[in-house]
Design a protein that fits this description.
By secondary structure, the chain is an alpha+beta fold. The protein is built from 12 helices and 10 strands. The longest helix is centred in the middle third of the chain and has 24 residues, at 149-172.
């Protein structure tokens, strides 16, 4: 488990990664009144929240964005599953610091997170939803940047601001409702089927039958929950997996393309460039450069 702690203006940013072979349990407390955001690029975390005589359990998984208020009377316990690599970005700011923000920025917080800005309990949960592609891209850039020192701080500052901007922009659309819905479990099942079969996924008709929802409802509810159509989600998963393989293993570009479901190397390279801004061969070159 590695945790990068960075101060960005009045925000504390935690960049956490874990690929441990066994379950990890971490406990922590918040120093004073704070508003927090967490963005899960990947992983599976069971969060236990205790305050007064209350205990809440929340499961935070790949693609989820959450927000909350907490104070020093709250105890958090994170149970990190070993079966999925954890990549998360958490952003915290003291409630009193929000009053020092420029007026337009403060008004964004008060308009879209009033329950967190004026909390009625020791712990208050705010909007919770699955990240849009723009949020996912910002998290990915934070997790994979190669910048060092002050350059890294400048880069992270810009990406945290971008991430929060995308978060509030999504709330502005009125779509930032709670994840829970009557079809939620079936749509999550559909997501798991896709991510487990990215090289040869089922068709929409096959997927509909597997989860017990008709085709139209699957497409509608999937986009409501994840912010993108099924095909776009599959493409994002393929490219993210490709980046992971290219940057962390000795697998070549052609083999990686085939493994994630691309038959055409040029189509793979173009899609990869459109998502990340550089070619897969450049990632492979960096991998071997770091090993030498």
């Amino acid at each position: 488990m590695t945790t990068d702690i960075i101060e960005v203006k009045d925000f504390i940013v935690l960049v956490e990664q874990s690929n441990a072979p066994k379950t990890i349990i971490q406990t922590c407390e918040i120093d004073g009144d704070a508003v927090g955001f967490a963005f899960y690029g990947s992983g599976n975390v069971e969060l236990e929240i205790k305050y007064k005589n209350t205990t809440k359990i929340a499961t935070n998984t790949t693609g989820l964005a959450i927000s909350f208020f907490g104070n020093s009377k709250v105890m958090f316990s994170h149970k990190i599953a070993p079966d999925k690599v954890l990549q998360s970005v958490s952003v915290f700011t003291k409630l009193k610091n929000l009053h020092t923000l420029p007026q337009p920025e403060y008004e964004v917080f008060t308009e879209y997170l009033p329950e967190l800005i004026h909390p009625q309990e020791n712990f208050v949960e705010g909007p919770r939803f699955y990240m849009t592609p723009d949020m996912q891209k910002a998290v990915h850039k934070i997790m994979t940047t190669q910048y060092k020192g002050n350059t890294r701080l400048l880069f992270l500052k810009s990406q945290v601001n971008e991430l929060l901007s995308h978060f509030f922009a999504y709330l502005e659309t009125g779509k930032g409702n709670p994840v829970d819905s009557c079809e939620r479990d079936k749509i999550l099942q559909a997501r798991d089927i896709i991510t487990s079969n990215i090289s040869n996924p089922p068709t929409l008709n096959e997927l509909s039958k597997l989860i017990g929802l008709n085709n139209n409802k699957l497409k509608k509810k999937f986009k409501e929950l994840f912010g993108v159509p099924v095909f776009k989600f599959l493409q994002e998963e393929r490219l993210s997996k490709a980046y992971e393989l290219l940057s962390q293993t000795e697998m070549g570009v052609q083999e990686t393309a085939w493994l994630v479901g691309y038959e055409s190397l040029s189509s793979f390279s173009n899609a990869f460039y459109q998502k990340f801004g550089f070619r897969p061969a450049e990632v492979k070159k960096q991998f071997f450069s770091n090993k030498s």
